[in-house]
User: Which sequence fits this backbone?
């Protein structure tokens, strides 16, 4: 009694018969036939794509999908085999079908989720997953088409080598079957599971199939008689419904044997039937008939009508001892519930021709988890959290627990009371002081179970503990809750960052005598801040560099000074006439007897490429050509640029500052100063500090050097010392 789809053999000549057998509506048949005729020549040279296209259409037709889905399914194999280009579909077949095919193509991103947990995902993979999520939410039909394609792919590797079969089966069992289950498409879920199981465990599969087949005729006759008995009793009481035996799936049999440590002969549901009624109240009427006439096993009773499964599944399950004392599993549900269980989201997709309207009851709830996930991922700072949460939502086992008001909350298996609290609302989680499960106090590390009622205890003075973020302590399971706790502490640390940033900025303003400079709205905007407090916070948390702010203040100071006596136009006119070498060893083209000074922002030394900037009242400031501050000045006053070069420099020395970052070890300072002394370089100032957080030793030296060549040689030699990580030039 195992239902497994066989590979569909199809030739072009039998297309009309095949189409008739599908028993589609007229508009669907006409659309498929027209598309087939337009692709006939392409399929003639691509038999594998043709065969797969027809099989996909057949699967989707059995799910009652719409015309656009069937047409898209026929095109997907041609795109995958690169027979036709994706971009050509919109022009030839319309935007709706193009969007569907593109969505199916984007579903390939889901395969990356098979990487081991903890794997660092590339930004491109994360972007692909986001696009896939958006595509799934916008049109879930793309997911159904992808699942149908996976069934075809799985069948196609039946005669391939074992490695290929096993690889395809593992991917299906890990990704596609759970996705079909999450979307409630039981018809595809069972098929994907059974074929995968056959490839992964061929011996076990054959053994169970053999056991099912041994007494198949006796079992079928038994079931026919029992089905008729129940049907007669329903008719007697005027309950309209159909009773029939249902096929058992080998994977589900094996899974139950594993979970309950049972032998095949101990299983209750090898014999199974289903009662499908018209009205909800008839479900319980039929249940009453069954339990009145045959003894039931209370331990095997589940009412998923009153309490649906996380994926929306509804049905009453019971096991009774039928004639001859043999156990029989019975499922009782309405026709709508039956459609939902077998077709899932496909049962709710009723497209009107040419529009995306017509979705009926229950569809939004089916994909509400997708919408929540898509909305949540826009707020997370760590992209890998998206991967973890997507795995939890789709591929992990689910539990459902109740709020005190009786609302059902769907969570990943392994969730704790804190996961529940943060699912309800961030404030509930942040103020959580305790939790009650079914009226009893439980620790935050308690693992919730299906059917439990949860009450969260809160206090307005309570706040999260930083140890909640420790994965080894088990307080939080979901990435969503973890992200919300991290966000709380980010806001909590803001006051500390404001104070730190203010102290750092005030210190630099005092040191550089910039207290008279006003902060302008333009300056705040430059650093994505609305006011001085936000700027302090940005400096304190490191998102804005202190040096950038100071450079901007210095620029403001330059602009605010009185207009210089120097006429830039006069300087430019005179550049070709004369040159002058000043006391700093700088040759200024076209200007004589003009004061120059070395810019503190970049501290150029001979050998650096330099440029001059005519200041207002302080002569010409000499900058390295790559100086950020110079670029800021020139963006405002490009006419003040003046050509300069190093002149007679052999009698001059220049100040330069370097920062050394190293591991903390004994004798490090001695080794550095020895090299500086050997280079006959004078040290004007030196400071050091220990970075305890990162276990680093940071030294800063203010030096006198004759030129850039000496400075570079010194830096290279220091870099060769053990434990040195970096040596860079900085402002003094």
Assistant:
């Amino acid at each position: 009694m195992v239902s497994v789809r066989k590979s569909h053999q199809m030739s072009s000549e039998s297309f009309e018969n095949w189409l008739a057998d599908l028993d589609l509506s007229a508009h669907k048949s006409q659309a498929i036939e027209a598309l087939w005729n337009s692709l006939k020549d392409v399929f003639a040279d691509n038999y594998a794509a043709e065969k797969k296209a027809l099989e996909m259409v057949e699967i989707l037709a059995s799910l009652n999908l719409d015309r656009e889905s069937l047409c898209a399914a026929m095109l997907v194999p041609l795109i995958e085999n690169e027979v036709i280009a994706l971009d050509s579909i919109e022009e030839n077949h319309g935007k709706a079908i193009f969007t569907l095919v593109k969505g199916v193509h984007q579903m390939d991103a889901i395969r990356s989720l098979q990487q081991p947990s903890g794997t660092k995902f590339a930004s491109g993979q994360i972007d692909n997953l986001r696009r896939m999520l958006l595509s799934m939410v916008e049109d879930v039909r793309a997911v159904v088409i992808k699942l149908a394609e996976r069934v075809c792919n799985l069948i196609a590797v039946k005669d391939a080598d074992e490695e290929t079969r096993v690889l395809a089966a593992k991917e299906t069992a890990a990704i596609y079957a759970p996705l079909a289950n999450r979307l409630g498409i039981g018809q595809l879920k069972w098929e994907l599971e059974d074929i995968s199981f056959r490839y992964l465990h061929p011996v076990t599969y054959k053994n169970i199939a053999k056991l099912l087949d041994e007494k198949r005729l006796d079992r079928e006759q038994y079931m026919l008689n029992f089905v008729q008995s129940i049907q007669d009793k329903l008719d007697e009481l005027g309950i309209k419904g159909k009773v029939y035996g249902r096929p058992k799936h080998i994977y589900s049999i094996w899974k139950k044997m594993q979970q309950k440590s049972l032998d095949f002969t101990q299983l209750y549901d090898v014999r199974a039937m289903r009662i499908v009624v018209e009205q909800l109240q008839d479900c319980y009427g039929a249940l009453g008939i069954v339990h009145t006439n045959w003894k039931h096993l209370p331990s095997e009773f589940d009412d998923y009508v009153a309490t649906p499964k996380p994926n929306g599944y509804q049905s009453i399950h019971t096991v009774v001892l039928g004639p001859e004392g043999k156990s029989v599993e019975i499922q009782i549900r309405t026709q709508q519930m039956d459609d939902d269980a077998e077709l899932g989201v496909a049962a709710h997709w009723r497209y009107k021709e040419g529009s995306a309207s017509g979705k009926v009851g229950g569809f939004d709830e089916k994909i509400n988890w997708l919408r929540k996930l898509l909305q949540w991922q826009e707020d997370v700072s760590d992209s890998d959290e998206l991967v973890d949460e997507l795995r939890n939502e789709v591929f992990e086992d689910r539990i459902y627990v109740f709020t005190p008001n009786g609302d059902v909350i769907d969570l990943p298996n392994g969730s704790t009371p804190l996961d529940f609290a943060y699912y309800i609302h961030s404030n509930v989680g942040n103020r959580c002081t305790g939790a009650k499960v079914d009226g009893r106090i439980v620790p935050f590390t308690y693992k919730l179970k299906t059917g439990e009622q949860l009450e969260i205890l809160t206090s307005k003075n309570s706040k999260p503990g930083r140890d909640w973020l420790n994965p080894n302590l088990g307080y939080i399971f979901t990435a969503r809750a973890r992200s919300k706790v991290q966000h709380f502490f980010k806001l909590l640390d803001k006051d500390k960052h404001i104070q730190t940033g203010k102290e750092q900025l005030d210190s630099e303003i005092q040191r550089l005598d910039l207290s008279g400079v006003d902060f302008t709205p333009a300056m705040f905007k430059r650093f994505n801040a609305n006011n001085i407090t936000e700027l302090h916070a940005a400096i304190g948390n490191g998102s804005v560099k202190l040096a950038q702010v100071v450079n901007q203040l210095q620029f403001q100071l330059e602009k605010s000074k009185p207009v210089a006596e120097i006429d830039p136009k006069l300087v430019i006119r005179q550049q070709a006439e004369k040159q002058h070498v000043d006391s700093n060893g700088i040759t200024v083209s076209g200007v004589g007897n003009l004061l120059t000074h070395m810019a503190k922002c970049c501290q150029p030394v001979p050998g650096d490429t330099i440029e001059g900037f005519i200041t207002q009242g302080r002569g010409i400031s000499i900058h390295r050509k790559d100086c950020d501050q110079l670029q800021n000045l020139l963006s405002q006053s490009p006419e003040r640029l003046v050509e300069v070069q190093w002149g007679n420099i052999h009698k001059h020395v220049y100040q330069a500052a370097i920062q050394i970052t190293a591991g903390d070890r004994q004798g490090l300072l001695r080794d550095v100063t020895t090299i500086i002394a050997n280079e006959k370089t004078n040290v004007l100032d030196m400071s050091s500090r220990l970075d305890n957080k990162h276990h680093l030793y940071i030294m800063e030296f203010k030096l006198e050097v004759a030129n850039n060549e000496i400075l570079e040689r010194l830096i290279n030699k220091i870099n060769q010392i053990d434990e040195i990580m970096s040596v860079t030039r900085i402002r003094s």
